[in-house]
């Protein structure tokens, strides 16, 4: 059974990578790199409830699972408070990247989710938003929930054609302290031809340094082109780059590679 070391936190209550790879006789092992914590909850909640957001903003953009976790908490509070305009929040068009994030939004009760499986990254999502007929007849005002550290692709592209983008930071990310120790423990016991999956450059500096300095038996995979570029810049060529940032595409890419060699 091939081991798949996933450089990410395991999603709760279920993780699509864990479920899918287990079904195909792989052994998924998670190596968390980052600590996530919600911030500015009161500010975000008050804005979601405001007349300004409900009446003047056309859409919500959420591209991070961590933002969705914050949203889940705030929506639960609004339900508990019996907020009368909750349906207006849930019915507002919401744009997201990838099928997993799209499904999370659907589970929260959002009814008009756009992008999703058709948007593999922020640049593609920006193009989908820009081409949406909705913005031809209404003000181009959108709310973007984001983290303290984020790429500026979406707001930059939208603002370049006169969108008004309000960014509210809803979580912060910090690296865990013992990444190197936990990685070395896993690498010492990893079977030959185990896979090491990079999901983001964040939190991987120590691991990348070790890969460059020490011989290893890992097959490297990247979840997408941005992370691939980061690895290549560090002299690490991934064997596989997933065609889309989701479990199904990553599994397919890995299996195709294994069958070809």
TrEMBL record:
MF (Gene Ontology): uroporphyrinogen-III synthase activity
GO biological process: heme biosynthetic process; uroporphyrinogen III biosynthetic process
Superkingdom of the organism of origin: Eukaryota
Alphabetical list of InterPro entries matching this protein: 4pyrrol_syn_uPrphyn_synt_sf, 4pyrrol_synth_uPrphyn_synth, UROS/Hem4
GO CC term (a single one): cytosol
Domain Tetrapyrrole biosynthesis uroporphyrinogen III synthase stretches: 16-251
Alphabetical list of Gene3D superfamilies matching this protein: 3.40.50.10090
UniProt cross-references to PANTHER family, sorted A to Z: UROPORPHYRINOGEN III SYNTHASE, UROPORPHYRINOGEN-III SYNTHASE
Protein name per Swiss-Prot or TrEMBL: Tetrapyrrole biosynthesis uroporphyrinogen III synthase domain-containing protein
Organism ancestry: Eukaryota, Fungi, Dikarya, Ascomycota, Saccharomycotina
